[in-house]
Amino acid sequence: MDEPDLSTVNCRFLKAADTNELMALYKDAGWWDQACEQHPQFLSRVVPDSALFVGAFYQKKMIGMGRALSDLVSDAYIQDVVVLQKFRGIGIGKKIIHTLITGLKEHGVDWIGLIGEPGTRKFYESLGFRPMSGHTPYRLKD
Q1: Is residue 111 classed as helix, strand or coil in its secondary structure?
Q2: CA angle, corner 65, sides to 59 and 67, nearest 5?
Q3: Nearest partner of 95 among 81, 111, 77, judged by Cα
Q4: How far is Cα of residue 59 from the mean position of the Cα atoms in its chain?
Q5: Catalytic hit among 26, 77, 124, 138
Q6: Residues paired with 53 in a beta bridge
Q7: Catalytic: 26?
Q8: DSSP element (H, E) containing 65
Q9: How far apart are CA 53 and CA 100, in angstroms?
Q10: Would you say 66 and 76 are in contact if contact means Cβ atoms under 8 Å apart?
Q11: Which region, left, alpha or beta, applies to residue 34 given φ > 0 means left and ψ of -120 to 50 means alpha?
Q12: Of 38, 55, 58, 138, which one's alpha carbon is 20 to 30 angstroms from that of 132?
């Protein structure tokens, strides 16, 4: 598959997605672990259970994704933003984020947050996100 020009990448909202394409994105991002391997059926719920899910397509193949968890009223969290490694660096991730932000704002959502992985600060700051001073993300541990 050739490397696309950004204008040839189509980002659109989805209500369902091919689980093999989702698995390829999760694996390419390094998010696929033993728990995923034991329970891959979670992939069938990722898209429909997200408030908004965006797929980035090139030549009919999903090469990137991002999703928002939200009540679609006031607050939203963007997560699982990934572009296949061979397609990174041309603006597809930005296109995914812009599509999600546009969709959330169309619903009236006025608070949009996310937690970026190490090394992504400049990327998210270029899109208008700023660290939340005085706030600490928490995760429930078993």
Answers
A1: strand
A2: 145
A3: 81
A4: 20
A5: 124
A6: 67
A7: no
A8: strand 61-70
A9: 8
A10: no
A11: alpha
A12: 55
What pLDDT sits at residue 1?
A: 64
Beta bridge partners of 40: none
| Phi, psi (degrees; rounded to nearest 5) at 136 | -125, 125
Residue 109 CA to residue 75 CA, distance in Å, equals 6
Token digits of residue 43 = 């992939």
Cα angle 56-84-43, degrees, rounded to a multiple of 5? 70
Phi, psi of 53 (to 5 degrees): -135, 130
φ, ψ at 37 (rounded to 5°)? -60, -35
99: Cβ–Cβ under 8 A, 6 or more apart, which residues? Answer: 11, 12, 13, 54, 66
- DSSP-derived secondary structure letter, 117: P
Q: Which of 4, 23, 17, 2 has the alpha carbon at shortest distance from 82?
A: 23
Q: Say whether 8 sits in a helix, a strand or coil.
A: helix
